[in-house]
Specification:
The structure is a single chain. By secondary structure, this protein is of the alpha+beta class. The protein is built from 35 helices and 30 strands. Strands 10, 11, 12, 13 and 14 form a 5-stranded antiparallel beta sheet that branches. The protein has a 4-stranded antiparallel beta sheet with strand order 1-28-27-26, with no helix packed on it. Helix 9 packs parallel to helix 13, helix 11 runs antiparallel to helix 13 and helix 32 packs parallel to helix 34. It is elongated.
C-alpha cells in the first residue's frame, strides 16, 4: 500500500456541545462549518508547527486510525510551545433557521451559497448576512457551483464567469455571474425524473444524476443528452454492468424500493466518473463513454471525489474509511480509517492547474479532518521499495513535472528497475521492450550486467551477487535489484555537452504521456488481478545464472534491444568514420563561432570518445549474441561499418572455424594484413586445411580480396599478389587490369616494375591495358611498352600463332595518333635488318615525317605495293583539306603530294633499283587526278606508248568534268538563293496578314499615342511633327522614348523606320 494522504484532525466539537456538523466549506485559511442548528461557525486554520504522529498517517502504509472516543485525541498538538490546529473566530447563530445542508462560495462575487430549509440562499462573504433567498429554489435538494475564465466571443477579452446549478425535483435551475454581478435571467431545464445529484463536468455542461440514469445538460443551449454506457445495446462483459445507467440495471429490486444515490466526480483531462452502487462509468466532458473498466469497489461508496492525482471514495459512516485509488490502474493504493466520516469537501473546479486542488477535507458529525498529500517523491519511493513498479510508473506518468525533483530521470529509473524484475521472472521480451522504450533507453552496461560473461564479458554480474543479508528475510516483498556499471551515466555528469547528449540518448527530452497506454498494457498482461502486487516473489531459479533454453531466449530478445540502441547511436555518430554528426549549436555558443571553429572543443571530444566506447560495447555484444543464437547473422554485421572489438571477434570466430566471416570482418575494420595472412595460410598451403571452407583453398579468394583493397594499400597488394600471379596469372591480373576504381588508381610505375619481376608478358599485358584502354600518357610507360613488344617479337618465331596478333598490336600501337613514345628511341630499338620489323620501321619513320624513307621500305625492301598504296591513302586522309578557292589544276603545288612521291619512286628510283612501270601505271589510273599533270607526265619515260596511259587520261578528264559541273551547280544554287532573298526583301515572306519587307508600314494619326510617354505622336498630320521610331512588332514610340523601351536602339534602327 501507499501513504498518499495523511489525516489531521483540525476541528473537534467539545463533548458538551450537542451540535452536529452537517457541512463544511474551506476558503483560504478559513473553515466554515454548518451545524444542524442552523448556526455557522468560522474557524481559522493555523500553520502546522508540530509533527503529526504516525497515528494519523496510514499505519504500515495501509490505514490510519483515529481514536473512536471523540474526547481522546493524543495526536493533537499540545498548547505548550505550539498553537491549536484551528481557532474559532466567529459563530453566526442565526445564519439559518434549519440545518445547513450544503455550502459553497463564489469568490469573485464575494458570496456564500447555502442550502438550508430546502431553499438556496446567498450570503455576504464578509458579514455573513443574507443577501437574497432564491424563491424559485423551494424544495431544492442540492446545488453545484463552478467558476471559469472565459473569453468574450465579441471582444475576446477574458472574464470570470461563475455558474450555479440547483436541483429542484425535476427542474434544473441555472444562474450565472458576469463581472461579479448576478445575471438577471434564470434558466430552467425540465428533466424526466427527480434530480438527486448535480456535478459540473465543464464550464458549460452539468451532469445530473437521477434514479433512472444520468443526463448531460448544456447550460447555454439547454440541450439535454442521455449518458449511456457502452453496454446499453445488450453488450456482454464487464462494461455492460453499467448498461444504460437505468434503474433496472442499477437498483436493488425487492429491498423496499431502495435506490442508491447516483454519484459523479470530475477528474483530470476532461474525464468524469459516474458511480451508482458499485457500478461505474467513465465519460468525457461531452458525455461520451470512455473505454475504461469499472472501479472494483467491494461495496458501494457513500461519496466520491478527485484529489490530484487520485480518486477517493468515502465509505458509509458505519465503516468510516476512505479509499484512495489510482485513476489509471484503478487499483487500491491506500485505505485510511476515519470513524464516522460522512462528507467529502473538495476545492471548486475553478483552478488553472490540475494539482492546485490536491488538498481536501473530510467531516463527520463531530470532527473535521484535513487531508494532506505526502511528498510525491516519497510516494514514488515507497511504491518502488514495495516492488509496485506499475503503480509507480502510473503515478509518475500522471504527475506534472513541477511536482517532482526529476520526473524524467525518476520515471526512467523505475522502468529500468521494473525491466530488471521482469528479466528475473524470465519475461525477457517485456523486459527488453521496456529497456528499449523511447523515454528509457537503458544504458547498455546496465542491461548487459544481467547476462552471463559469455555475452557481456567483464560487465556480467551473474553469479557475483553478494549473499543475501539477514534483513532480506523479514517477510517484506523481495525486490529484484542489480548493481550495474554506470560508467556512461557518471561520465555524463562531468561536462555539459555529455549531459545534454545523455538526455537526448536516453530520451529524457520526450514526453512520457504518449507511452502511458503501453505501460498499462504491460501491467495488464503481467497480472489480471489489480488488488495484488505487481510482481510475485521471484523464485530461487531466478537467481541462477542463465543457461540452456533460458539463455537462448534471453539472447534472442537482447538482439532487438541492441539493434535499437545501435540505431539511436547512429543518429549522433557516424559508424564509418567514428566522428560526431553535425548537430545544432551548443547552448551558450554563438553560431558564428561554431562555424569558424575548425576543430572539436573539449566537450565534443569527450562526447565522441564516450560514444565510441558505447558503440564498441553494443556492437561487440551484438556479435556475441549472434554467435550464440543466430551465427548466420554475424556476417551481416561485418558488411556494414561497426565498432566490434577485433580481439573478441577473432577469438570467437576462430573457435568455431568461421574463417570466411573473420576475413569479412578484417576487411571491414581495414585489418588487411591479418586478413591476407589468413588467406595466404589457407590458399597457398600445399595440402588443403579441413578447418577452412573450400572457398578459401587456392588463390581465387585472395585475388578477390586484393581486388577490393584501395590503392593506398599498394605495399600489401604487391606483397601478396606474387603467389597468386604464379598460381593463376589469368585471374590474378584482374587485380591490376579489372574494371574497378581500385585497379585504375594503383600507382602504375610501381605495378609495372613489380610485374617485371614476375613475368614480362604480364608487364606487357598491364601496359597495354593502361596505355590503350586507360589512355595513360606517361612517356616512360609507352617507351617501355615498345621495348616489351620488340623483345617479345624477337623471342617469338613467326611460325607461332601468337606472333602475328602480337605484331598487329605492335603496329597498331605505333600508328596511334599523337604518339607519346620517343620516336628516336623507338626507331633505334626496332631491329633494322630484320624483315619482320620493316613495317614497324616504316610506321615510326612516318610519325617522324620521313614519308619518302617509309615508302622506300615498302617499295624496295618489302616490295609490297599494296601496303605502299595503303600508306599513301592513310597519309592523304590525315592531310589538311585543300582550299576551296584554289582552282589551279596544272600548276605544281609547292608541296608535292604523297602519291607524287610514290610515283617518283616507281619511275625514277635510286640506284641500284630499276623503274617499275606496272605499279606506276596502276597508281596513275587510280589516283592520277590527285597528281599534278605536268610533273607527273615529266616522270613518264618517253618511249612509253600513249595507249598505256589511257586510264590515266580518262580519269583526268572525268575529274575535270566533275569540277566544271560542280561549279555550275553551285553557281545556279547561289543565284536561286539570291532571288529568294531579294523577293523577301521586297514583298516579305508571304505570311498572311504580316507586314514584312519593303511593304511594311505603320499609320500615325492624331489619336495614336506613344506607348512610353502616352503623348500624341501626330507625326504625319502637322508640320514639324515628332520624330518617331518603329519597333519590330510595329509599335511606334517617340525617338526620345526609344531608350526607355529596350535600351538605346538608335544605332540598330533602320533608316526607313526613322521617318514619320
Amino acid at each position: 500500500m501507499l501513504s498518499a494522504f495523511t489525516a489531521r484532525p483540525i476541528i473537534e466539537l467539545r463533548p458538551r456541545d450537542k451540535s452536529k456538523i452537517e457541512t463544511i466549506l474551506a476558503h483560504s485559511d478559513r473553515i466554515l462549518v454548518g451545524l444542524n442548528s442552523g448556526a455557522l461557525r468560522i474557524y481559522r486554520l493555523n500553520d502546522q508547527t508540530t509533527t503529526i504522529e504516525n497515528g494519523h498517517a496510514a499505519s504500515n502504509s495501509i490505514s490510519s486510525s483515529l481514536p473512536r472516543n471523540s474526547g481522546d485525541f493524543p495526536q493533537r498538538p499540545s498548547s505548550r510551545g505550539s498553537s491549536r490546529p484551528t481557532d474559532l473566530l466567529r459563530e453566526v447563530e442565526k445564519f439559518s433557521t434549519r440545518a445547513i445542508e450544503q455550502l459553497a462560495i463564489i469568490k469573485e462575487a464575494n458570496t456564500i451559497v447555502s442550502l438550508s430549509n430546502y431553499h438556496v440562499s446567498l450570503h455576504d462573504l464578509q458579514t455573513y448576512e443574507l443577501i437574497e433567498m432564491l424563491d424559485k429554489t423551494k424544495n431544492a435538494s442540492g446545488f453545484a457551483v463552478t467558476s471559469n475564465i472565459v473569453k468574450d466571443p465579441d471582444t475576446g477579452i477574458p472574464e470570470i464567469i461563475s455558474r450555479l446549478a440547483v436541483a429542484v425535483k425535476r427542474r434544473l435551475l441555472l444562474w450565472s455571474w458576469h463581472e461579479c454581478e448576478l445575471g438577471g435571467d434564470m434558466a430552467e431545464v425540465l428533466l424526466s425524473e427527480s434530480i438527486r445529484s448535480v456535478t459540473w463536468a465543464s464550464a458549460t455542461k452539468v451532469v445530473c444524476g437521477m434514479n433512472g440514469g444520468y443526463v448531460m445538460v448544456d447550460a447555454l443551449t439547454r440541450e439535454v443528452e442521455d449518458v449511456t454506457g457502452p453496454g446499453a445495446v445488450g453488450a456482454a462483459g464487464q462494461n455492460s454492468r453499467f448498461g444504460a445507467v437505468s434503474s433496472a440495471g442499477m437498483g436493488y429490486m425487492g429491498l423496499g424500493g431502495y435506490m442508491p444515490k447516483p454519484l459523479a466526480a470530475k477528474l483530470a483531462d476532461g474525464q468524469v466518473l459516474l458511480a451508482k452502487d458499485i457500478n461505474t462509468l467513465f465519460i468525457d466532458d461531452a458525455g461520451k463513454p470512455l473505454d475504461k473498466r469499472q472501479v472494483p469497489w467491494a461495496s458501494a461508496p457513500e461519496s466520491i471525489g478527485y484529489s490530484y492525482p487520485y480518486i477517493v471514495a468515502l465509505q458509509p459512516p458505519t465503516k468510516g474509511s476512505l479509499e484512495v485509488r489510482n485513476p489509471d490502474t484503478l487499483s487500491l493504493v491506500q485505505t485510511i480509517s476515519l470513524p464516522g466520516a460522512a462528507q467529502l469537501h473538495f476545492p471548486p473546479p475553478n483552478v488553472s492547474l490540475a494539482h492546485a486542488g490536491k488538498g481536501f477535507h473530510i467531516s463527520s458529525e463531530r470532527c473535521v479532518w484535513k487531508m494532506g498529500a505526502t511528498d510525491y517523491d516519497d510516494q514514488v519511493k515507497e511504491l518502488v521499495d514495495a516492488g509496485n513498479y506499475d503503480e509507480a510508473i502510473s503515478v509518475l506518468t500522471m504527475l506534472e513535472d513541477a511536482l517532482l525533483k526529476s520526473k524524467t530521470e525518476t520515471l526512467r529509473e523505475v522502468k529500468m528497475q521494473k525491466a530488471e524484475v521482469l528479466f528475473g521472472e524470465k519475461k525477457y521480451r517485456k523486459a527488453m521492450d521496456l529497456f528499449n522504450e523511447d523515454d528509457v533507453h537503458a544504458p547498455p552496461e546496465r542491461v548487459l550486467a544481467l547476462y552471463p560473461p559469455i555475452i557481456s564479458g567483464e560487465l556480467s554480474k551473474a553469479g557475483k551477487e553478494e549473499p543475501k543479508k539477514a534483513a532480506d528475510a523479514d517477510g517484506s516483498t523481495p525486490r529484484a535489484s542489480v548493481e550495474t556499471v554506470r560508467k556512461s551515466e557518471d561520465a555524463g555528469e562531468n561536462t555539459s555537452a555529455v549531459g545534454r547528449f545523455a538526455g537526448y540518448f536516453m530520451g529524457s527530452q520526450r514526453k512520457p504521456a504518449a507511452d502511458a497506454a503501453s505501460i498499462v498494457s504491460v501491467k495488464r498482461e503481467a497480472s489480471d488481478t489489480t488488488e495484488e502486487k505487481d510482481f510475485a516473489d521471484p523464485s530461487t531459479d531466478a537467481d541462477r545464472p542463465l543457461e540452456g533454453k533460458d539463455l537462448m531466449k534471453a539472447v534472442l530478445e537482447l538482439n532487438g534491444y541492441l539493434a535499437g540502441t545501435r540505431a539511436r547511436l547512429q543518429r549522433v555518430i557516424d559508424p564509418a568514420t567514428g566522428l560526431l554528426k553535425p548537430r545544432d549549436t551548443a547552448p551558450g555558443e554563438d553560431a558564428t563561432d561554431r562555424f569558424l571553429r575548425t576543430s572539436q572543443n573539449e566537450s565534443e571530444a569527450q562526447l565522441q570518445e564516450k560514444l565510441q566506447g558505447t558503440f564498441r560495447l553494443v556492437d561487440t555484444t551484438l556479435f556475441r549474441a549472434y554467435m550464440l543464437s543466430q551465427p548466420s547473422l554475424a556476417s551481416s554485421l561485418f558488411r556494414i561499418p561497426n565498432f566490434c572489438d577485433p580481439d573478441v571477434v577473432n577469438e570467437k570466430l576462430v573457435e568455431q572455424d568461421r574463417y570466411n566471416e573473420l576475413i569479412d570482418f578484417f576487411y571491414g575494420k581495414k585489418l588487411h594484413k591479418e586478413a591476407l595472412a589468413l588467406l595466404v595460410k589457407f590458399g597457398a598451403a600445399a595440402k588443403p586445411d579441413e578447418r577452412a571452407p573450400a572457398l578459401l583453398h587456392g588463390p581465387n579468394r585472395t585475388i578477390q580480396y586484393l581486388q577490393n583493397m584501395p590503392s593506398s594499400e599498394i605495399d600489401l597488394i604487391l606483397e601478396n599478389a606474387g603467389w597468386t600471379l604464379r598460381a593463376n596469372p589469368g585471374f590474378a591480373m584482374e587485380i591490376f587490369t579489372g574494371d574497378t576504381e581500385n585497379a585504375e588508381t594503383l600507382p602504375r610505375e610501381r605495378v609495372a616494375a613489380f610485374l617485371q619481376t614476375i613475368d614480362t608478358a604480364l608487364e606487357r599485358q598491364y601496359l597495354e591495358h593502361v596505355v590503350m584502354e586507360l589512355d595513360d600518357t606517361t612517356p616512360d610507360l609507352h617507351n617501355r611498352l615498345v621495348e616489351l613488344y620488340v623483345s617479345a617479337l624477337e623471342k617469338t618465331k613467326q611460325s607461332d600463332e601468337e606472333w602475328e596478333p602480337l605484331m598487329e598490336r605492335f603496329i597498331k600501337f605505333l600508328q596511334a595518333p599523337n604518339p607519346v613514345y620517343s620516336l628516336g628511341k623507338a626507331f633505334s630499338t626496332i631491329p633494322r635488318n630484320d624483315p619482320s620489323f620493316y613495317e614497324a620501321q616504316a610506321v615510326v619513320l612516318s610519325n617522324m615525317g620521313q614519308h619518302k624513307q617509309a615508302l622506300e621500305i615498302f617499295v624496295f625492301r618489302m616490295q609490297n605495293y599494296i601496303k605502299a598504296e595503303e600508306y599513301c591513302n592513310r597519309i592523304q586522309r590525315l592531310a589538311p583539306a585543300p582550299s576551296t578557292n584554289d582552282t589551279s589544276d596544272d600548276e605544281d603545288d609547292e608541296t608535292p603530294s604523297i602519291y607524287h612521291t610514290l610515283l617518283s619512286l616507281y619511275l625514277q628510283p635510286s640506284s641500284p633499283h630499276k623503274p617499275q612501270l606496272e605499279p606506276a601505271l596502276d597508281l596513275l589510273s587510280k589516283h592520277g587526278a590527285r597528281l599534278p599533270a605536268a610533273s607527273s607526265l615529266s616522270l613518264i619515260p618517253d618511249d612509253l606508248p600513249v595507249s598505256s596511259l589511257e586510264s590515266y587520261f580518262r580519269g583526268r578528264i572525268r575529274s575535270a568534268n566533275s569540277m566544271v559541273n560542280e561549279s555550275r551547280i553551285v553557281a545556279a544554287l547561289r543565284k536561286a538563293e539570291g532571288i529568294t532573298v531579294a523577293a523577301e526583301l521586297h514583298v516579305g515572306d508571304g505570311a498572311k496578314g504580316a507586314q514584312t519587307g519593303r511593304s511594311r508600314h505603320v499609320t500615325i494619326t492624331d489619336e495614336r499615342l506613344c506607348v512610353v510617354c502616352h503623348r500624341r505622336l501626330g507625326g504625319g498630320m502637322r508640320v514639324g511633327g515628332s520624330v518617331v521610331a518603329v519597333l519590330p512588332d510595329n509599335t511606334v514610340v517617340h525617338w526620345g522614348c526609344l531608350s526607355s523601351v529596350g535600351g538605346d536602339q538608335r544605332s540598330k534602327t533602320p533608316s526607313w523606320a526613322r521617318h514619320s
